[in-house]
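Narrative of activities, Objective 1.

The group set out to show that a structural description can be obtained from nothing but a protein's sequence at a throughput compatible with the screening campaign. Below is one input-output pair from the validation batch, recorded exactly as produced.
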Amino acid sequence: MINEISALSSASSTDGLLKTTSTTRYSASAPDMGGTAEVSAPSFSEAVSQVSNDAIEKIKHGEAAAIAGVDGQASAQQVVEAVLAAESTLQTAIAIRDKVVSAYQEISRMSI
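Output recorded for this entry:
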Protein backbone atom coordinates (compact mmCIF):
# COMPACT_ATOMS: atom_id res chain seq x y z
CA MET A 1 0.00 0.00 0.00
CA ILE A 2 2.84 2.38 0.80
CA ASN A 3 4.34 1.76 -2.65
CA GLU A 4 1.10 2.94 -4.28
CA ILE A 5 1.19 6.11 -2.18
CA SER A 6 4.81 6.62 -3.18
CA ALA A 7 3.87 6.23 -6.84
CA LEU A 8 1.12 8.80 -6.37
CA SER A 9 3.56 11.17 -4.69
CA SER A 10 6.10 10.84 -7.50
CA ALA A 11 3.38 11.35 -10.10
CA SER A 12 2.19 14.53 -8.47
CA SER A 13 5.71 15.92 -8.15
CA THR A 14 6.35 15.55 -11.89
CA ASP A 15 3.27 17.56 -12.90
CA GLY A 16 4.32 20.42 -15.16
CA LEU A 17 2.02 22.90 -13.43
CA LEU A 18 3.56 22.25 -10.04
CA LYS A 19 7.21 22.36 -11.03
CA THR A 20 8.37 25.86 -10.35
CA THR A 21 11.44 27.20 -8.71
CA SER A 22 11.60 30.53 -7.06
CA THR A 23 14.68 32.64 -6.85
CA THR A 24 14.95 35.41 -4.34
CA ARG A 25 17.53 38.14 -4.57
CA TYR A 26 18.85 39.73 -1.43
CA SER A 27 20.91 42.86 -1.63
CA ALA A 28 23.77 43.28 0.77
CA SER A 29 23.36 46.05 3.30
CA ALA A 30 27.04 46.48 4.06
CA PRO A 31 29.00 48.38 1.40
CA ASP A 32 32.06 46.13 1.68
CA MET A 33 30.10 42.99 0.76
CA GLY A 34 29.44 44.31 -2.72
CA GLY A 35 26.45 43.40 -4.85
CA THR A 36 23.67 40.93 -4.46
CA ALA A 37 23.52 37.27 -3.67
CA GLU A 38 21.05 34.85 -5.24
CA VAL A 39 19.35 32.43 -2.92
CA SER A 40 17.27 29.70 -4.49
CA ALA A 41 14.41 28.44 -2.35
CA PRO A 42 12.33 25.36 -3.11
CA SER A 43 8.82 25.97 -4.36
CA PHE A 44 5.81 25.06 -2.27
CA SER A 45 5.12 21.94 -4.33
CA GLU A 46 8.73 20.78 -3.95
CA ALA A 47 8.58 21.32 -0.19
CA VAL A 48 5.31 19.38 0.11
CA SER A 49 6.72 16.61 -2.08
CA GLN A 50 9.84 16.35 0.10
CA VAL A 51 7.79 16.23 3.31
CA SER A 52 5.49 13.55 1.90
CA ASN A 53 8.43 11.46 0.69
CA ASP A 54 10.05 11.70 4.14
CA ALA A 55 6.78 10.61 5.76
CA ILE A 56 6.47 7.66 3.39
CA GLU A 57 10.03 6.57 4.17
CA LYS A 58 9.40 6.79 7.93
CA ILE A 59 6.24 4.68 7.60
CA LYS A 60 8.09 2.13 5.45
CA HIS A 61 10.82 1.97 8.11
CA GLY A 62 8.18 1.30 10.77
CA GLU A 63 6.65 -1.50 8.70
CA ALA A 64 10.08 -3.03 8.04
CA ALA A 65 10.93 -2.87 11.75
CA ALA A 66 7.65 -4.59 12.63
CA ILE A 67 8.36 -7.37 10.15
CA ALA A 68 11.93 -7.70 11.45
CA GLY A 69 10.55 -7.93 14.98
CA VAL A 70 8.20 -10.74 14.01
CA ASP A 71 11.10 -12.57 12.37
CA GLY A 72 13.22 -12.09 15.50
CA GLN A 73 15.78 -9.88 13.73
CA ALA A 74 15.05 -6.72 15.74
CA SER A 75 14.65 -6.07 19.44
CA ALA A 76 11.31 -5.10 20.91
CA GLN A 77 12.66 -1.63 21.73
CA GLN A 78 13.68 -1.00 18.10
CA VAL A 79 10.29 -2.15 16.87
CA VAL A 80 8.38 0.02 19.34
CA GLU A 81 10.49 3.11 18.54
CA ALA A 82 10.06 2.68 14.78
CA VAL A 83 6.33 1.98 15.02
CA LEU A 84 5.74 4.97 17.33
CA ALA A 85 7.68 7.24 14.95
CA ALA A 86 5.61 5.94 12.03
CA GLU A 87 2.39 6.43 14.00
CA SER A 88 3.35 10.00 14.88
CA THR A 89 4.14 10.72 11.22
CA LEU A 90 0.82 9.25 10.12
CA GLN A 91 -1.10 11.32 12.69
CA THR A 92 0.68 14.46 11.46
CA ALA A 93 -0.17 13.63 7.84
CA ILE A 94 -3.82 13.06 8.75
CA ALA A 95 -3.96 16.38 10.62
CA ILE A 96 -2.49 18.21 7.62
CA ARG A 97 -4.96 16.49 5.29
CA ASP A 98 -7.85 17.52 7.53
CA LYS A 99 -6.69 21.15 7.51
CA VAL A 100 -6.35 21.14 3.71
CA VAL A 101 -9.83 19.66 3.28
CA SER A 102 -11.26 22.18 5.74
CA ALA A 103 -9.60 25.07 3.89
CA TYR A 104 -10.90 23.77 0.55
CA GLN A 105 -14.43 23.49 1.92
CA GLU A 106 -14.25 27.00 3.31
CA ILE A 107 -13.07 28.37 -0.03
CA SER A 108 -15.80 26.47 -1.90
CA ARG A 109 -18.45 28.04 0.35
CA MET A 110 -17.34 31.58 -0.50
CA SER A 111 -19.67 33.50 -2.75
CA ILE A 112 -18.11 35.05 -5.81
